[in-house]
Structures are given as C-alpha cells and as structure tokens.
Amino acid sequence: MKPYEHLAAFGTLDGELRLGGMPLSRLAARVGSTPFFAYDRDILDARVDRLRAALPRRIELSYAMKANPMPAMVQHLAARVDRIDVASALEMQTALDSTISADRVSFAGPGKAPAEIRQAVAAGIIVEIESTTELERVIKAGEELGLTPRIAIRVNPDFAVKGSGMRMGGGPQQFGIDAELVPDVLSEYASAGLDILGFHVFAGSQNLNAAIIAEAQRRTVDLVSNLAEHLATPVRYLNLGGGFGIPYTEKDQPLDLDAVAADLHALVDGPIAQRLPEAKPVIELGRYIVGECGVYVTRVLDRKVSRGKTYLVVDGGMHHQLAASGNFGQAIRRNYPVIVGTRADTPVEENTTVVGCLCTPLDLLGDDIELPHAVIDDLIVIFQQGAYGLTASPTAFLGHPAPAEVLV
C-alpha cells in the first residue's frame, strides 16, 4: 500500500492533505496545537455504506467501541449501526449516552467486575458470558435487582483462525467458555432465571484473507447450530464476530469484502435460515469501520543528520500511537503509510526516519521512508489511525500533554 492510495480517499487542496474539506494547515490552526487525531466523517460514512451494500440485509452491524471510544465518534455511529459492543463500564456509559437503545448494546470481555455486571443487568444490556464465574455474578445481580438478565454465551471455538493479527479463539483462551463445556453449562444453568439469547464466537482479529474469514464463519454457524440443540429456547442472537482487517503496510492487500459478503449471503440464506430461523446474525466490527477514516498529525520540531542518516523529530510519538511504532503486538515492525501533509503533492526527495519526542529508541514512527524534503514546522501525517490509536497507547509516559481528537 502506497501513501498516494490514501490521498485518493482524503484528497488534497492547495497542495495539502484535505481533512473534512479543508487543507491540513487550516485544520491544525483550528485545533490549536499538535499532535492531534482527525477522523473524516465522509470516509467513515462511506465505509458503513459500503458494508451495508455488501452484507446481507438480515445481518446486523455492531460497532466494537474498543477500536475508538471517542464520544463524538460513538454518537455519530450510533445512528449508522444496529448495535454497539462495549468492554468496560466507561464504554458502557458512552454507549448509553448515545442515541442507541440499551437492548442494542452488548458487554464483552474477560474479567468483568461485579459492579460492572450489575450496571449492565440494570440497564438491560446483553452480557456476553466469558466464564461460569460471570454467570454466577449475573445471576446474583438479577436476583438483587429483581430483573431477568439478558445474556449470550461467548464460546471459545474448537478451531483456530489462521492469518489473524491476534488469535482469540481455539486452544486455551481467557476468552469465552470452551465449546465442549457449553452443553453442560447450559444444562446446569437452565433454570437460573436467565434470558439466554444466544451465542457469540470471535476467533481472531485483523484478518485480510477473505477465504479464511469465510471458513471461520461457516464453522461458527455449524458450531452454534449444534450448541443450539442444548438451549431451551430458540437462538435469537448470533454474533459471528468480525475480524475484518485493514492494510497497514505496503505488503498488505486490502480485504476482498465482496468475497466475504458472498459467503455470508450463502450462510444467511442457507444454514442460518434453516437451522437458526429466529436468530439475528450480527457482524461485530471495530477496526474495519473506523480504522481508515483517521490520521495522526504531528509537527516537525527538529531536523538533524547523524552520521549520514536524516531524522525528523516530531512532537508526537508512541505515547499517542503505539501501534505505528511497532510495539503493539507486531512480530516484525513495518512502516505505516506516512506523508508530509503540508507538501502532499511534492515529489519525494530523500530517505528520512521519523522519530518521536520520547527518551527511548522505540519511539520510531517511520524508519527509512521516502518523503519530500521536510523542515521544522511541517506537518507529518500517519494514516490508518482511526482504530487502536490514542486509547491503546501509553499516554502517561513522560508526562507529555494529551493530543486532541476531532471528527471533521
């Protein structure tokens, strides 16, 4: 993936990257300081529209807020998606403060505290159960509140998904109840006063291989169909997970969404309609929805040459964007797409390394990349920054100010 491919989505104006219809320097002046994250509504909406056009109409689209919990982002997406998935009490409150109704919110993740579970049960949120301990806590909360908890069983499948950035299913996992144990769990808790809506299977994230995703979805439907035989009521909620990836480096090829969608059409019209006719199938996406709509903008503070190597030292770094530095679970560090946003139409002239302002050699945002000749006060832009940016980074390290976030 080349930087100019991203320029095609954002566009340029007066030789600068365009965000929200205005040149980058004008946006930076309005924000008032660098670094900052900017998220483009038009690109965000185009991605949701693309998903809606490709996926079966029966599929419900859920936004995994962990990807980007910025309140303005969540408010915007609440009107565009069918559901929101949260992973903490704060994310839960952010979802409840939006226009989406509580019964369209799900709460997933291991280690849910009793107080968080009580909040979710009180609000009528779907609690996705990761263990029998959580089941006991949900039951207790329901008894104390005089409510019937709405839950789904998260299943750790008996298969793994190859090619995922992070494997979250198959083998031993902190996520979900092992598939082979689910029938006994359903039997044991059949009369526990729970409204068991269905199941959630999420096997892996950041996958760019349509065939692998399709296979995982087929196996998920087969697994859930078998588990449904042990459920006293029909399955009404079928969360197929997501895991759709986005390209971050030159070697990455974008996911073939049409191929994934074609398989989903076959699943919805075939096995799901036949074996789970009352189920509402859900695709839960975070990174794929918001990842490509965002950029991280940071200003050049210094330009120096050390033994023949040119460095651009910027006022941002890994404390805001850990993933771009290669320290967010990457086995091999590769450069994210980077441009000089204030010289977006200028031909590349030199080989440069972009580093942040932290006292560690790990603070590396672009290593030996080709850029136009950049000078102090130029704005460096890193693409693919809509997901797992600010909130997935060590913002307190060295005490630098937090960056702004804007939805434009």
TrEMBL record:
Keyword Transcription: no
Cofactor: pyridoxal 5'-phosphate
Keywords linked to the UniProt accession: Pyridoxal phosphate
Family matches, as PANTHER family: DIAMINOPIMELATE DECARBOXYLASE, GROUP IV DECARBOXYLASE
Pfam families cross-referenced by the UniProt entry: Orn_Arg_deC_N
Protein name as annotated: Pyridoxal-dependent decarboxylase, exosortase A system-associated
Residue ranges annotated for the Orn/DAP/Arg decarboxylase 2 N-terminal domain, each copy included: 45-291
